[in-house]
Amino acid sequence: MSESFSSLVDTFKNVGVSRAYGPAVNIAGEEVVPVAVVSFGFGGGSSPEDGQPGGGGSGGGGGGFVLPLGVYAKGPSGGMTFRPNTVVVLVALAPLVCAVGISIRGILRTVHSHR
């Protein structure tokens, strides 16, 4: 199991800022730098099989995701500006809009029932 863990550590030791900001790309004559949220996690465990001493069991797993937030590109003034990925912004805001709507509905019901 320790060899597997070492292999995972070696594979993911460079994940971080280098993965959140991609290399500059030239699109239609404009240089852009992609920006993303990168997240991953791993877990593992071991326990004796059938409760017998010396028996061994082990397991592990992991997963991750990348969420493209947008790009940095040169703005009209020549400085870098962030351009968000509107689809991701809308998807990320959906739970917030739902929570606000449910809260407002609860407040209105409470106010209405106390009249």
End-to-end separation in angstroms reads 65 Å
Shape: flat
Proportion of residues in extended strands: 35-45%
Number of helical elements = 3
Helix content: 25-40%
Mean pLDDT: 79
**The biggest beta sheet, please?**
4 strands, antiparallel
Low-confidence stretches: none
Give the spatial strand order of the biggest sheet. Answer: 1-2-3-4
SSE class: alpha+beta
Overall radius of gyration: 24 Å
Nutshell version of this structure?
This protein has 115 residues and is of the alpha+beta class. Helix content is 37%, strand content 37%. The chain has a four-stranded antiparallel β-sheet with strand order 1-2-3-4.
Please give a handful of descriptors for the protein shown.
3 helices, 115 residues, 4 strands, four-stranded antiparallel sheet, alpha+beta
Describe the SSE topology.
Layout: H1 2-12, H2 17-20, E1 25-27, E2 30-46, E3 58-74, E4 80-84, H3 86-113
Antiparallel strand pairs: 1-2, 2-3, 3-4
